[in-house]
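Figure 3 (text version): C-alpha cells given as input.
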C-alpha cells in the first residue's frame, strides 16, 4: 500500500515530506475532494512518516478519516457520528500548543484532543486515492479568534 505524508497546497496519493515548525497558534483547512484514507494533525520530527495511519505513537496527534482523534495509539476523542467529513466538506484544525480542535465546514465539533509534547509540525497523510486540498492561509472559513495562518519559524543570526 503506497502512502504519502506531506504538507503542501494539494495532497494526493504520491508525494514527499515537508517540515514546517509551528510558531504561533495555527489553523489549517482541508477540502476533501476525493475520500479515501487520510488524516490531519500535528507531529514531532521523530514521527515515522512511512507508517500510516498516524497517531500510533507519542510523536503524532491526528484526526483520521473516520472522525477519530488518535495519539499514542489511543482514541482521544471522536467527531459526532452524524458529523463525519464527506466529499466536498471543509475540515479545519487549530492547535494552541496543548489542544487540537476540529471544525467541519466552519463549525466547532467540540471534540478536543491533547497529549503530544515538544516542537510539532503540521502533518497530512493520504492513501487509497484520497485527494485533499490543504489551505495554510486564505481559508474558506474564518479561523476562531486567536488563530491565524501558519507562520514560519525564523532564526536570527
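Below: residues designed for each position.
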Amino acid at each position: 500500500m503506497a502512502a504519502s505524508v506531506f504538507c503542501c497546497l494539494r495532497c494526493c496519493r504520491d508525494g514527499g515530506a515537508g517540515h514546517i515548525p509551528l510558531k504561533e497558534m495555527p489553523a489549517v483547512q482541508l477540502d476533501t475532494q476525493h475520500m479515501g484514507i487520510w488524516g490531519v494533525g500535528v507531529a514531532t520530527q521523530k514521527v515515522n512518516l512511512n507508517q500510516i495511519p498516524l497517531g500510533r505513537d507519542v510523536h503524532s496527534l491526528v484526526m483520521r478519516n473516520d472522525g477519530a482523534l488518535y495519539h499514542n495509539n489511543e482514541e482521544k476523542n471522536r467527531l459526532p457520528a452524524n458529523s463525519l467529513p464527506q466529499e466536498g466538506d471543509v475540515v479545519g484544525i487549530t492547535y494552541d500548543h496543548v489542544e487540537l480542535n476540529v471544525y467541519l465546514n466552519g463549525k466547532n465539533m467540540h471534540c478536543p484532543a491533547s497529549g503530544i509534547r515538544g516542537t510539532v509540525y503540521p502533518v497530512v497523510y493520504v492513501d487509497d486515492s484520497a485527494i485533499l486540498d490543504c489551505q495554510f492561509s486564505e481559508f474558506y472559513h474564518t479561523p476562531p479568534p486567536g488563530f491565524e495562518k501558519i507562520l514560519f519559524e525564523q532564526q536570527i543570526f
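The two ends are 43 Å apart (CA to CA).
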